[in-house]
């Protein structure tokens, strides 16, 4: 349990800036996913737009893969900053 607290050590302003940037990137990604699925859903109401709607669903689904990648990159980035600051 002591080790998990070690991960929460304050590394200062760098951590806050990094985390906020990744949070903003994640929010933009989530917004785009919602937009693609909403527009795709409307496209399915008209038969001539069904193919385009399908592509929007595929785009939204692919973007769902980006969500965990953003989180993983964020964790790696913060970990590197923490490691660098603890070596000082």
The helix tally amounts to 3
Total number of strands: 0
| Total of domains | 1
Strand content: under 5%
Parts with pLDDT < 50 across at least 5 consecutive residues = 1-7
Termini separation (Å)?
A: 25 Å
| Helix content range | over 70%
The main pleated sheet reads as: none
Write the layout of secondary structure elements.
Elements: H1 2-7, H2 13-43, H3 50-86
Helix pairs in contact: 2-3
Organism: Psychrobacter proteolyticus
Transmembrane segments: 24-44, 56-78
Pfam families: YrhK (PF14145)
Report on this structure.
The chain has 88 residues and is mainly alpha-helical. The chain has one domain. 84% of the residues lie in helices and 0% in strands. It contains 3 helices and no strands. Helix 2 runs antiparallel to helix 3. It is rod-shaped and about 65 Å long. The two termini are 25 Å apart. The model is unreliable at 1-7 (pLDDT under 50). Residues 20-74 form the YrhK domain. InterPro entries: YrhK_domain (IPR025424). The chain crosses the membrane at residues 24-44, 56-78. It comes from Psychrobacter proteolyticus.
């Amino acid at each position: 349990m002591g080790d998990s607290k070690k991960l929460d050590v304050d590394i200062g302003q760098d951590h806050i800036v990094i985390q906020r940037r990744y949070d903003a990137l994640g929010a933009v990604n989530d917004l785009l996913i919602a937009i693609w699925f909403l527009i795709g859903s409307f496209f399915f109401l008209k038969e001539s737009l069904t193919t385009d709607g399908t592509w929007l669903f595929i785009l939204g689904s692919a973007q769902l893969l980006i969500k965990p990648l953003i989180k993983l990159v964020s964790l790696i980035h913060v970990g590197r900053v923490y490691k660098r600051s603890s070596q000082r």
